[in-house]
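Minutes, project check-in
Item: structure for the 137-residue chain
Input as provided by the requester:
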Amino acid sequence: MSSDRVSFAPRRTTVGRTTAGLMAMSYPIVMVVLALAVGPREAGDLQDIASSFIAALMLVIALPTTWFLSFDFIEVSRTTVVIFGAVTSLPLWYVLGTALAVRSETWGSWLRRYATVALAWTLANLALLAIVALLTG
């Protein structure tokens, strides 16, 4: 064994683009699962209505393209909304994950950037909802 092959310098870990893209889809998938866990068709009290509202909000944050189906001339079921949102939104989250992988040298930096983007996206949606609620009274 040659001594010139031994190095104690820290290694640079490259972030795999495919893996990062797949990992980026974890946030919206978890949000969708949590949103679908609430039964919107169940009759109940005010707490159930609030839970259904929160579930719908989580679905829109996780799958931002679902608002396309909110037009009056489109009659869709709950399943159609979820499938359309997943098919059109999950590729956007995948592209986000791969774009962050290109700019990140380590998984730690990728995770920090991804958490920042996911948090900013969620807060921007909540702020937009608050502004719309304020304007509509």
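Outcome recorded: The longest helix spans residues 107-136.
No further action items on this chain.
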